[in-house]
Design goal:
Distance between the termini of chain A: 67 Å
Largest interface: A-B, 102 and 130 residues
Structural class of chain B: alpha/beta
Radius of gyration of chain B: 31 Å
Shape of chain A: elongated
Strand content of chain B: 5-15%
Largest sheet of chain B: 8 strands, mixed
Strand order of the largest sheet of chain B: 1-2-4-3-5-6-7-8
Number of domains of chain A: 2
Largest sheet of chain A: 6 strands, antiparallel
Strand content of chain A: 15-25%
Number of strands of chain A: 6
Structural class of chain A: alpha+beta
Oligomer: heterodimer
Order of helices and strands of chain A: HEEEHHEEE
Distance between the termini of chain B: 90 Å
Chain lengths: ~200, ~600
């Protein structure tokens, strides 16, 4: 491969050097210095090499939900079970993208919930979680549920000795958008203390 | 041993053959592309309504802000188009894995992978990972190498891949060392116990064998942090090191279900072996111009970073728009902005107290809301912006505030408004001003706690300034230009954004914030709120709705402060900072304050 040597590669070298430098300055442990990443819409150009660093995940977020059918409120249940690890996952594990995606969305929601100017219910992450729960509940109840509520808890994963921490509970939400009357009876805001309310 | 020798020699020989190196890179990363696209095809449900990557929801996120681009993506992300793109990616990967030798065909396959990969990036945002990123650039660079006939271009592309490989391990290792769990030996066990990343079997093994867990951690840190030794070690050592790295990836793949990471990172190794081989062992001799270009541009970027830091430091110490420097008897110089009331004699004066690491411009929207029949006084505490003091943070605070009040207060009533930490400071010092205070408004104030604070509250209190030392170090070593004041959403109405950014890029601000918080921490944890306001002082405590909802202990403490002073308590639908910067909450706070003061706009 290749026969000639010349200086024609210099623009390429300069471009790749800039890309490497952008990668370097995009790795600051404090995400407030991630300004360079703003140019990377697809989150592919500037790799993030801060794997499990500086503080690795040592707890799981779990999404729980309950629903109302014919006026009866269900018990809380897990919205998505994480698949137990198997050796076959080395070769084929499409479900991991969904597990990781859920972890990403929940983590982002918890960090940014306090920064949404119009309230966290307007944010894309809240809406994604709500939609995810609604779909699960619709399948679980064959479409008979008329309201859902979801909660986020932090657990010690496989370590059952770690107490479960309640992080967030949504307000009662209708099963589809645009059915406000059902919300009228709900408290005005979501609250970590309002789990009994659905 | 002979077998090992033969394998090592075989690896090293192939690593000097450009074509073989590019092909190995392509093949390994093609495997990542193939698996990735098959996963996305299998997960089509995740892109429909109710899925985590439903474009109808994602398009409302901060991921893509450009409206025309969103409209283009609306078309691109139709299910059939997405499926077609993944089918094309699978086909391109199969081309790379096949024996086809034609450079143009293989380069075209890379182009397909790169273009479709980038186009699909925002759609697969949730659940994407580092293996996708690694495969993206290895495909792009091997494509560049394929499409060019020039040795220098191929060598430059391989140098870039090898440099990214080095960077990936260096960053991963050294940033880990900043985290306490990696230093105190709890990291690996912690990760393994999670269902998202870990493995129950591995967790149980490591839990019962702490020495094994620590060995795994230390081995990971050494392998990652010391990766550059491959550039200075002999050929056998180099191959052994890369084999150990490969072993680490195999372990990760087997225990954490991160199978795609194995080929993604193995794809980087041929380039590392190529650029670390004896230069003359390649034919023609390898072009090593890239490190020189990288060093030159890197130096230039470093120099500009330092120059900008010097400029920013100077700018941050100048009084900003319409501020004057007031020198106090304690020797403090305070950057102050005083706005007299438009007409009324005896108009009220409102003095504003900033939060932690906050500047006085935060008050601009509320001041505008209050109207011009009220005199207002904002200032920065020493250590922020142009304000300085010869003494330690907070030690001259009460004297400074007393002097400011005496200097600017007329005959009218004096009011104080403090936000967050500023509320705590007002509770400590308002009674010692030697003047009657008509009222105090505490906006989502920092308070002590009624009961013993729970674990969450305690860690929140203690961790608030945990990140400040890193911030200070970064701002002293040239990272400041990557920090923007807009991160804090400060209203720039009162001063140019570059002036505000300069203040936040000065390590002094963060050092001061840390010192202020440490000085207050004992009071807060022991629930020593400071002297009660005099009975004649009206008190309003405003709680942001997010604090009320997400931090019940804080909300209860606010209620107590209001009750203790027979004052009012209001919950405003807002975030903590939103009380000062978002238009709806600011309007509501303005109404509450005007009602208290007794003025109408």
């Amino acid at each position: 491969m290749g026969r000639r040597n010349s200086r024609g590669h210099l623009p390429l070298a300069a471009g790749l050097a800039l890309w490497l430098i952008a990668t370097v300055i995009g790795q600051h442990p404090n995400r407030r210095f991630d300004r360079v990443r703003q140019v990377d819409t697809a989150a592919l150009l500037i790799p993030n090499w801060r794997f499990f660093a500086p503080v690795p995940a040592s707890m799981d977020f779990e999404l729980l939900h309950r629903f109302r059918v014919d006026g009866e409120v269900s018990e809380w249940g897990r919205t998505k079970e994480t698949a137990a690890r198997r050796l076959a996952h080395m070769a084929w594990f499409p479900g991991r993208r969904i597990d990781k995606g859920l972890f990403d969305v929940i983590g982002r929601f918890l960090v940014a919930a306090e920064q949404q100017p119009d309230g966290y219910e307007a944010g894309a992450d809240y809406r994604a979680l709500l939609a995810f729960v609604r779909r699960t509940v619709a399948a679980e109840t064959s479409g008979r549920a008329d309201a859902v509520q979801f909660a986020i808890v932090r657990t010690g994963g496989h370590d059952d000795d770690v107490p479960v921490e309640e992080l967030f509970a949504s307000r009662r939400e209708p099963m589809t958008d645009g059915h406000e009357p059902r919300r009228a009876a709900a408290p005005p805001t979501a609250s970590a203390r309002s789990k009994e309310e659905t | 041993m002979r077998i090992v020798d033969r394998v090592v020699r075989g690896v090293l020989d192939r690593a000097t053959d450009r074509t073989a190196v590019v092909e190995a890179t392509e093949r390994a990363s093609a495997l990542v592309v193939l698996l990735g696209s098959l996963e996305h095809l299998a997960n089509a449900e995740n892109r429909r309504s109710g899925g985590l990557n439903d474009w109808a929801v994602l398009r409302g996120s901060a991921l893509v802000r450009n409206e025309p681009l969103k409209r283009v993506l609306d078309q691109v992300y139709r299910p059939r188009v997405v499926t077609a793109m993944h089918v094309m990616r699978v086909a391109a990967a199969l081309v790379h894995l096949s024996p086809i030798k034609d450079n143009r065909v293989r380069a075209a396959a890379s182009a397909v992978t790169v273009v479709t990969g980038y186009a699909l990036g925002p759609l697969h945002h949730n659940g994407g990972d580092g293996s996708d990123q690694a495969a993206f650039f290895t495909q792009a660079l091997s494509g560049v190498a394929r499409s060019s006939g020039r040795v220098a271009t191929v060598d430059t592309a391989l140098w870039a891949i090898a440099s990214q490989a080095t960077l990936s391990y260096l960053v991963s290792g050294w940033v880990k060392l900043l985290g306490a769990p990696w230093r105190n030996g709890s990291a690996l066990l912690g990760v393994m116990r999670t269902r998202t990343y870990g493995s129950e079997v591995m967790w149980r093994i490591l839990r019962d064998r702490p020495a094994l867990a620590r060995t795994g951690e230390v081995a990971t840190l050494i392998l990652e942090c010391a990766f550059p030794v491959v550039f200075v070690s002999g050929p056998r050592m180099r191959v052994a090191y890369l084999a150990a790295i490969a072993g680490m990836h195999v372990t990760i793949a087997a225990t954490m279900g991160l199978g795609r990471f194995l080929p993604a990172f193995l794809a980087l190794q041929p380039a590392v072996l190529f650029v670390t081989a004896d230069r003359t062992s390649t034919h023609p001799a390898r072009n090593d111009g890239f490190p020189l270009v990288l060093g030159t541009i890197g130096t230039a970027v470093g120099v500009q970073a330092i120059a900008r830091q010097v400029i920013d430091a100077r700018r941050s110490r100048r009084p900003r728009a319409q501020q004057e420097l007031v020198e106090t008897a304690a020797g403090s110089k305070l950057a102050v902005r005083y706005r007299p009331a438009a007409a009324r004699a005896g108009a009220p004066l409102v003095v504003f107290e900033n939060s932690l690491v906050a500047v006085q411009e935060y008050w601009e929207p509320l001041i505008a809301e209050l109207g011009d029949d009220i005199a207002t006084l904002t200032y920065d505490r020493p250590g922020t912006g142009a304000s300085t003091s010869p003494t330690a943070p907070l030690s001259s605070y009460a004297d400074d505030l007393r002097e400011l009040v005496h200097r600017y207060a007329g005959d009218g009533p004096i009011w104080f408004i403090g936000h967050s930490f500023g509320g705590y400071l007002l509770r400590q010092h308002v009674t010692s001003l030697g003047r009657e205070v008509a009222g105090v408004v505490l906006l989502d104030p920092t308070t002590g706690f009624i009961d013993q604070p729970d674990h969450d509250v305690l860690s929140a209190v203690r961790s608030l300034t945990e990140g400040f030392p890193l911030m200070e170090w970064s701002l002293r070593t040239g990272w400041g230009w990557l920090l923007d004041a807009s991160t804090w959403a400060i209203p720039a109405r009162g001063a140019p954004t570059k002036d505000l950014s300069a203040v936040y890029r000065n390590a002094r601000l963060w050092r001061t914030g840390r010192a202020e918080w440490q000085a207050a921490e004992v009071d807060l944890l022991d629930d020593r709120p400071g002297p009660r306001f005099p009975k004649a002082t009206q008190v309003l405590v405003v709680t942001a709705s997010t604090s009320d909802e997400l931090q019940p202990a804080v909300s209860a403490a606010h209620q107590r402060v209001a009750r203790e002073h027979a004052g009012q308590r209001a919950i405003v639908r807002s975030t903590h900072d939103g009380l000062l910067i978002h238009s709806g909450p600011v309007r509501r706070v303005g109404e509450l304050v005007r009602d208290m003061i007794g003025t109408k706009q």
